[in-house]
Design brief:
Elements (H helix, E strand, L loop, with lengths): L1 H27 L20 H8 L3 H8 L8 H10 L4 H10 L18 H10 L4 E4 L5 E4 L1 H7 L13 H7 L1 H6 L3 H16 L6 H13 L1 H7 L10 E7 L3 E11 L7 E7 L2 H11 L1
Antiparallel strand pairs: 1-2, 1-5, 3-4, 4-5
Length: 284
């Protein structure tokens, strides 16, 4: 009886999350960019429900119920049409389908590890002076090299185990935050990554606990979380500043230990000669 009750609560929570995601996504779109006719009487931002319904070729009432989190059935094909109408990217579409109960093609998930092997640490140490870390899906830091600590202006040996998390440190460690030149761009991107990853772990205590701690510790995180943005991982250039040596543009490269739910190796490589010289000075 308890299992049935828990499953029902999870389904209801997913329906409500799906409705919130659809509403947030709809309100974020610019009607003019989608070629929709101008309307003088627009009192709310973004698209109207009837416009989304028209673009997705579904009924307005049915779509309204979907946004309201009602217990209605929707095929994967219909949801894909709604995702297309809302200009969802691949990550957002996967999130939408997952909340509706449609799992992606099965890939054997790797069991999350609390720590890495000695061989993984040897790889990190061999990469020095390139900054590198290994983190899990929840952004917990599992291993790192000394170059990465110098880059982020942090001594992880002084940080409690439960706080060795990239999202937590970004919002709660002043030294870390001061190194991030492009904070206004990186911060919402990190939150969107965390939300997308958390969508694969509904109701799991470790994820819920981390979210609660972040919400309690940072007003900036709370406001950004309410945007309901989702992002996927990509190799990208990040900008760092260490006042003692200067500014660096480093390309973040990502590798995974397994196709799904695997630990992620992040290695930062200078994007230009000037950054290479600054990094060499920092890690000398």
């Amino acid at each position: 009886m308890s299992l049935i009750s828990d499953a029902s609560l999870t389904e209801k929570s997913n329906r409500l999350q799906l409705g919130e995601f659809l509403r947030r996504r709809r309100e974020s779109l610019d009607p003019n960019r989608l070629g929709l006719p101008r309307m003088r009487s627009r009192r709310t931002p973004g698209l109207r429900r009837e416009e989304v319904a028209q673009l997705a070729d579904v009924g307005v009432t049915w779509y309204t119920w979907l946004e309201q989190g009602r217990d209605i059935k929707a095929s994967a094909k219909t949801l894909a049409a709604i995702a297309l109408a809302l200009q969802c990217n691949e990550t957002e579409t996967s999130h939408l389908l997952r909340l509706a109960g449609y799992q992606q093609p099965a890939v054997r998930a790797a069991k999350a590890c609390a720590k890495v092997s000695a061989h993984c640490q040897m790889i990190l140490d061999a990469l020095d002076p390139l900054p590198a870390i290994i983190q899990n899906q929840r952004f917990d830091i599992l291993a790192y090299n000394s170059a990465w600590c110098r880059l982020m202006n942090i001594d992880l040996t002084t940080i409690a185990a439960e706080e060795r998390n990239c999202i937590w440190l970004a919002f709660n460690h002043s030294g870390w935050r001061r190194t991030m030149v492009d904070w206004d761009e990186v911060m919402p991107h990190m939150v969107a990554l965390f939300r997308a990853q958390m969508g694969e772990h509904p109701g799991e205590p470790e994820w819920e606990n981390m979210l609660a701690r972040l919400m309690a510790s940072s007003e900036e995180f709370r406001q950004t979380w309410q945007r309901y943005e989702l992002k996927g991982f990509e190799n990208r250039v990040r900008h760092f500043l260490r006042p003692d040596v200067g500014r660096m543009a480093l390309r973040q490269n990502n590798w995974w230990s397994t196709p799904q739910n695997g630990d992620r190796l992040l290695v930062y490589v200078p994007d230009d000669e000037e950054s290479a010289a600054v990094l060499a000075k920092l890690t000398a």
